[in-house]
Amino acid sequence: MRLDFAGGWTDVPPFSAREGGVVINAAIQLFAHAQVTLGGSSIVLDSQDQDARAELPAVDRPSGDGRLKLLEAALRLCRPSGGCRLTTRSDAPPGSGLGSSGALDVALVAAFAHVMGKSPTPAAIAERGWRLESEEAGNPGGKQDQFAAALGGFHRFTFRDPNVDSERLSLDPEFVGALQTGMILCYTGTSRVSGATISRVIGGYERGDRAIIGALHGLKDTALAMDEALRNSDLAAVGRLLSANWCHQQALDRVMSTPAMARLEAAMRAAGALGGKAAGSGAGGCMFFLFPNGPAAERARVAALAEGADLLPARWSADGVAVASIEEC
How many CB atoms lie under 10 A from the CB of residue 23? Predict the structure, then answer.
């Protein structure tokens, strides 16, 4: 999964197609897992996170209209002939805003490719994962989550649909360590961002809503500045830009911040945060905050717990998608 430092929403069409988006993100050590076992006379789907299971004849074409929508979409897009068992799980809670759905897209595509003897590149896996989510499952969105999951590391992604340019950021190791030590990742509750929210933002852009257009351009500009701040190892600037990005996110739609998020943000600011933002779209899910040093972050963890937040680990992951045979796991 990933933390999106800046630029999220600019990877979403039609902005990404017409004006081009820029996103800065980093992969973290929270993972989506998919296991495919071939054989048998039926198809078994088992989503351990949703506690949902289904079994159907191998000749059936999954409809994709239930709780197992993403798994059914993967079968339609990727599956070999005959029966199989598909099991999935995620390290993150539902609606976290950490790109868990995109990470699962990547895991599903990679698992099916592996059992079918194929070895696509990480970028090809990301593209197919986006197709699985946006086209086959009917959940339109941008591509940053799939590419972050597939490639790992810190990246600057530039989107000009249908093209994606990726640049791995080579950062000072000491600075990367300070980012990790000072980062607090808080889960505030299931995200309430819905198709209606996305439709309002896209619709406003299409209508020429000045506030939404201005916010999208502000997000893109913030991503460009974040790229520079990370390369310069400027911790204070990274913090300021996280907060600037959050202001632009909230300008997109009135539901981006919940009361719980506002209370947590105030508590983290009082504890000395350099800045922070919602992970992903907003309206619940996770927020993450940057502190100047380890002791300050430790005190802030106590404050976050007092606000009812659940703390998740925020450790960077240099590696992207990985596959293994079951006997190797």
Answer: 31
Distances (CA, A) of 255 to 22, 23, 270, 283: 23, 22, 24, 6
**Cβ pair 150, 126 in contact under 8 A:** yes
Q: What is the pLDDT of residue 61?
A: 62
**Cα distance between the two ends of the chain:** 20
182 by DSSP, 3-state: which? coil
| 82-114 confidence digits (pLDDT tens) | 889 999 999 998 889 999 999 999 999 999 999
Is there a contact between 183 and 242 (Cβ–Cβ < 8 Å)? no
pTM (2 d.p.): 0.93
The CA angle 205-150-129, to the nearest 5 degrees, is: 60
Q: Give residue 293's pLDDT band: very low, low, confident or very high (50, 70, 90).
A: confident
